[in-house]
Design a protein that fits this description.
about 260 residues; about 15% strand; single chain; 7 strands; Rossmann fold; about 45% helix; binds nicotinamide-adenine-dinucleotide; alpha/beta
């Protein structure tokens, strides 16, 4: 699938990994619909893009109606620009680490669990399903008669979740597990599905991590021993969009990191 001439929906596009995807898509001739809660950051991201290449839509991915409104406005924009939908990248996410039992033996509240799972898992699938309805109606292109691609964002915590990451690992493990059945569901429509599981990347999420943990994770990477740059994540997203053979898989992008029990 060529990026140029198509529109991609990116949730969490106002910061970090999502923002880098937005920039990469627009640099390569595509349009990006930026879905995010943060209007201020969203506006700042759009201002830096080539004129007309990006548009911000306020969206809370835990609210079905909020997604519906943003998708509707995106489709109106698509009508105006004539750049059909080419894919969706649900990159909105939160960490919120909490151990299941605290030092006093009290269990975490279900609100903690629901908060993370609602954004990372429910927010992912709700956005994807609402975009797919439109993606499936686009004109198939190229020799493969492709319609587009879903690129979900898991985490290495899907496989090696650390202390305090039960909710996060549950949400990301589920995203990883949805990849193959989604690929199978969508094959008849010429839509591919790939999930990327990043290790540790510089972003808004990791900027608020304790420095000891952030540096500690970088230090246990094999090579290179540093946090990834959002641009390196976006580079893989570009390859996933462009390479028609990438489908039905979860790709770790982690410099060989296998997260230890604790840092
Ligand atoms: N940075 C890393 O090291 C890393 C590693 C593994 C996975 N990830 C995943 O990558 C994705 C992007 O995270 P990031 O690191 O760029 O973080 P980030 O905090 O920089 O960006 C996340 C964005 O999501 C938005 N968001 C949060 N809740 C939302 C909601 N309910 N509705 C709409 N938007 C919402 C935020 O406003 C923010 O702009 C997340 O799913 C995260 O779990 C990040």
């Amino acid at each position: 699938m060529k990026i140029a001439g198509r529109t991609f929906v990116v949730s969490g596009g106002a910061s970090g990994l999502g923002q880098a995807c937005v920039e990469e898509i627009c640099r390569n001739g595509g349009n990006a619909a930026v879905f995010d809660l943060n209007e201020e950051k969203g506006a700042a991201v759009i201002a830096k893009l080539p004129s007309g290449a990006g548009k911000f839509f306020v969206c809370d991915v835990v609210e079905t109606d909020s997604i519906a409104a943003a998708v509707k406005q995106t489709m109106e924009w698509v009508q105006e620009t004539g750049k059909p939908l080419g894919g969706v990248i649900p990159a909105a996410g939160v960490g919120n680490p909490t151990t299941i039992l605290d030092r006093n033996g009290d269990a975490f509240s279900m609100d903690t669990f629901d908060f993370v799972v609602n954004i990372n898992l429910r927010g992912t699938i709700d956005l994807v399903r609402q975009c797919l309805v439109h993606l499936a109606k686009t004109e198939p292109v190229g020799a493969d008669q492709e319609r587009g691609v879903v690129i979900m964002v898991a985490s290495v915590a899907a496989f090696d979740g650390q202390k305090g990451q039960i909710s996060y690992a549950a949400s990301k493990g589920a995203v990883a597990s949805m990849t193959l059945p989604m690929t199978r569901d969508l094959a008849r429509y010429g839509i591919r599905c790939v999930t990327i599981a990043p290790g540790i990347f510089e972003s808004g999420m990791t900027a608020v991590m304790p420095e000891k943990l952030f540096k500690g994770l970088a230090a246990v990477m094999e090579f290179p021993r540093r946090a990834g740059q959002p641009q390196e994540f976006a580079q893989l997203v570009r390859q996933v969009i462009e390479n028609g053979m990438l489908n039905g898989t979860v790709i770790r992008l982690d410099g060989g990191l296998r997260m230890p029990s604790k840092i």
